[in-house]
Amino acid sequence: QVQLVESGGGLVQSGGSLRLSCAASVNIFRRILTGWYLGWYRQAPGKQRELVAGIRDVGSTNYADSVKGRFTISRDAAKNTVYLQMNSLKSEDTAVYYCNYRRLSVDLWGQGTQVTVSS
After folding, report:
1. For residues 28 and 22, is the Cβ–Cβ distance under 8 A?
2. Under the phi-then-psi rule, with left for phi > 0, alpha for psi from -120 to 50, and beta for the rest, what region is 58?
3. How does pLDDT run across 47-57, given as a tens digit for each residue?
4. I need a surface site. Which of 46, 60, 96, 107 has the fewest CB within 10 A?
5. Res. 30: pLDDT tops 90
6. According to the model, what pLDDT value does residue 28 have?
7. Are 119 and 112 in contact (CB under 8 A)?
8. Which residues have a Cβ under 8 Å from the Cβ of 110 and sit 6 or more positions away?
9. For residues 17 and 46, what is the distance between their CA atoms, to the nearest angstrom?
């Protein structure tokens, strides 16, 4: 069973940076595998889960308007990991962040990592 594990969350002051990691137990990000999509989502208390950023097998990326220019998603297939670099953090970025991998009938979620931005 493939597992995703997020890490890198924590408490940071407004304007600070964090890098989240989504590590897979097997290499599901290698280029030979096509058609996958890895999304970073977040859920703040009392709010719906929302897509923050995503990356496809071909390398294309997408971002929510609220994080464009501040967050960057990237992958390191050799390390079986997708990263979310978060800069210029704001209090409204406070949430639990999850990664989600989808390919064909596979739909995997990690357990989440808490990001708290203090103002």
Report:
1. no
2. alpha
3. 999 999 999 99
4. 46
5. no
6. 86
7. no
8. 3, 4, 5, 6, 22, 98, 99, 100
9. 24
Residue carrying the six token digits 């991998």: 101
CA distance 62 to 104: 20
Place of tokens 């897509």: 51
**Which residues make beta-bridge pairs with 45?**
none
Residue 111: both structure tokens together:
């357990």
Per-residue pLDDT tens digits for 6-29: 999 999 999 999 999 999 998 888
User: Tokens in use for 73?
Assistant: 């998603």
Phi, psi of 16 (to 5 degrees): -85, -175
* Secondary structure class of 56 (helix, strand, coil): strand
3-state secondary structure 18-46: EEEEEEECCCCCCCCCCCCEEEEEEECCC
